[in-house]
Design a protein that fits this description.
Helix content is 51%, strand content 11%. By secondary structure, the chain is of the alpha/beta class. The protein has 2 domains: 3-82, Orthogonal Bundle (434 Repressor (Amino-terminal Domain)); 94-283, 2-Layer Sandwich (Endonuclease, Chain A), CATH 3.30.870. The protein has a 6-stranded mixed sheet, sandwiched between helices. α1 (9-24) packs across α3 (40-48), α7 (128-137) runs antiparallel to α8 and α10 (184-197) packs antiparallel against α13. The N and C termini lie far apart (55 Å).
Amino acid sequence: MPAGGRPTVRSRRLGAALRTYRQAAGLDQSDAAEKLMASVAKVSRMESGKVTSRPVEVRLLLDLYGVDSGEERERLESLARESNRRGWWLDHRGTVSENYVSYIELENDATHIAAWQLALIPGLLQTPGFTMAMLDANPAVVPVENREEAVRVRGARQRRIEEGQVRLTAIVWEPAITAPMRQVDIHREQLRHLLRVAKLPNVTIQVLPLSAGNAARVAGPFTGMSFGHDPALEAVSFESFSNLVVVEAVEELAGYAYALDTLRSAALTPDQTMAFLAKVLRQIPHDEGKEVQA
């Protein structure tokens, strides 16, 4: 059984994939049970993610379902091997919500991440100073005693970006870049960080200019993820002050895929974005008594 006696993000994703392939093959759970020499009840629990599928069971089922793609087979077998793996994020259960823990697990398995933000820098690109300033702006979001740990958790999430383990595309509306901050040194530090990270081969940053305001209305802030070679969206998340929602329904994902295409097309190119960030950085005064010029 998955750790904690309940489905994990990985076990649910694996189970859903096995169910989809079984149905596509025109087979029912009794066929799968016969192949595994197991009960129909076990197959049902595997497909719901309530029990951990072993790699050998996944191989047998994929043979039965006619799944020949080596990459897809390896991806699903990897999910089986890692369904009960303890992640670093579990050490923070006492101070981060259960939803956030599940989200980090999902994010940690992603191969492609696409983020759209209107007023903030995407979390995976924030400096510690920016994150703390954001938390200070609304003290009700994270208790004061938990803020330093929240910053550490965000930093841990960013390591996969810096190590090139995941492809990140970030589209940010211009006001998130140019709006003055109370501490100009934090603003400068954040822009320098964006300029540095944008040079990584696995990172693409685009600024959506104010002149493309119609495109900015295509969707509220969200983060999309995919988990294989294909960057097509497989999950989308968006958050409120107290909750984080993950959407996986195909019909809903289509709308977010359209939004991403619209935003990418309307945004500055990556090279234009680099030039824009450098220009804004030059305009930020070093005298902290002055307002930031934009």
